[in-house]
Design goal:
This protein is an alpha+beta fold and 177 residues long. Helices cover 32% and strands 29% of the residues. It has two domains: 66 residues, no CATH class; 91 residues, no CATH class. The longest helix has 16 residues.
Amino acid sequence: MTDHELVTDSRYPGWRPRLVTDEDAGQPWGDALAPALLVEHGHPGWAGEVYQPEHAGRILQAWRRLDPVVFERYLRLAHGTTAIEQVTDRDLTVIVFDTAGYRTHAGICGTADLSGEYHQWRSWLDGDVYGVLVEHHTGNGCWMHEDSVFGLYGWAYARQYAADLLTETAASPNLAA
């Protein structure tokens, strides 16, 4: 575990959240996240923990036989896609898109905004995923682990989450000293 920063708050002396690299971070997940097609070395597959489109098999077949411009047009015409984002590193491309079924599932009216998905996948590809460990100083020179959360995508989000978790944990009547 690589420590990156301690977040402190003068309201909670003897408490600290440590931001650490999440070295075992999985793919972004949640059924409110848009479908994601992962293409590694030319071999496509679906991200497992996001919304799965109803016609996933047809979409995969279309990706295999159509060039990228025609594939995007296919998504828009056949599946009601309004937004497509691609995130790439050396070996892996993530194609995130909405479908009419996804928008209904997520309660989205109109065009989907996939900027959140884009940033989560970009953070995952870049290894920009963190955990927060909240610790309390016991007074005898030891730090006692009180709470932790991992799978926080992006530095700014992780830092804000650390501050919020510190407040929540240190202010808890069951833990406050």
